[in-house]
Amino acid sequence: MAASNAMIQFLADWRQEQHGAIERSGRLKIDYDKGRLPRCFAMWRGAEFGDIVASIRFHPRGEVVSGSAQSDVPELSHRVSRKAGRRHVPD
Fold first, then answer.
1. Please, which residues have CB within 8 angstroms of residue 9's CB and are 6 or more apart in sequence?
2. 60 upstream amide cis, omega within 30 of 0
3. From first to last of its 91 residues, what are the pLDDT tens digits of the chain?
4. Considering the entire predicted model, what is its pTM?
5. CB of 77 within 8 A of CB of 85?
6. In this structure, are residues 49 and 62 in contact, taking their beta carbons and an 8 Å threshold?
């Protein structure tokens, strides 16, 4: 059975769109338009500095995965079941 591919887009006009099913052992891509939070970024000597961190809680097990929504991460870390960067957040 092939792994599922899903994407959640957080658009500049404050809409969210989900494409595909989010499934265990599938792949999930977060596409976050930094135009939603322009004050999180600053230009200095021609370089842009800033970051937006996304945290996702998966149910029913309560796993939380956090990571940058602005930088590309290695292919393996796109897996929903990844352990790197996982931290449990109290309810």
1. 16, 17, 18, 19, 31, 32, 33
2. yes
3. 677 899 999 999 999 999 999 888 888 888 888 888 888 888 888 888 888 888 888 888 888 888 887 765 544 344 443 344 444 445 4
4. 0.64
5. yes
6. no
Closest CA to 33 of 13, 10, 67, 53: 10
Rounded Cα distance, 87 and 90, in Å: 10
Q: Which two tokens stand for residue 71?
A: 């930088």
C-alpha of 56 from chain center? 7
Indicate the pairing of strand 47-50 with strand 41-44.
antiparallel
